[in-house]
Amino acid sequence: MKIKCPKCKEDAELAPDFSYVECKKCGLDMSYGEYVRYVAHSEAQYSDILGDYTGATEGETAGTLDEWED
Ligand SMILES: [Zn+2]
After folding, report:
1. Which residue, of 8, 33, 50, 68, has the fewest CB within 10 Å?
2. What confidence tens digit (pLDDT) does each residue in 21-30 have?
3. Residue 10 C-alpha to ligand 1 middle, in angstroms?
4. Residue 56 carries which DSSP code?
């Protein structure tokens, strides 16, 4: 299926079995797992959505520790 290439923002092709992502425009060729990590990394640079998510997780951990101290 067609997905957005994380590199050149053109149409890339995702294999039907999610085994690879290929973009003929810029030559992108990686496994789907690598693609997900690539996109997550790229998104983190342009937005703070991932940062907010990480912060929320850290907050939960801190809250758990506080409960133990009480
Ligand atoms: Zn591309």
Report:
1. 68
2. 999 999 999 9
3. 5
4. H
